[in-house]
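As a warm-up, study this chain.
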Amino acid sequence: MNWLGAVPTWCWWLIAAVLVSGGQQYRVVVAHGETASARKELSDYRLEVSERDRRANDQARAEEQRSAQAQEGARANAHEERTIADASAAGADAVGQRLHNEAGQLAATVSCPGPDPTATARSQAATRAAMVLSDLLARADARAGELAKAYDQARIAGDLCEASYNALIK
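Now compare it with the structure written out below.
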């Protein structure tokens, strides 16, 4: 242990300082490595999250476009059905008008004046009955047309609503 005493005290202090500073330097290098690793992990995590957000936004946009296209298709289908229903109603109105005209012509031809007063009275009664029936037919036909139009509009609106709802929940 003699040789330990030969080394001056300040050298021991210098050796201790070098060892402590070397240990601290090692800790700093390790901490920098861990920090760099943590920064890399954070960067990777942020990239992963942004990619997930982008994919979710793309899916939401695609779903929104699909839904809008489905609703537009339902609207177009409803418009087509309305057009067909209006055309059918116009055709039914024409047929009803023709029937009404034929009933009026029938009422006009039923009256046949003759020399016999009873035949004339019967003819007048038949004419009045034919006119009443013709008027009743015209009223019933007009009301049936109104009801059919209202029914068609309600059915088309219901189908449109159902198709829009189904497009939203798919």
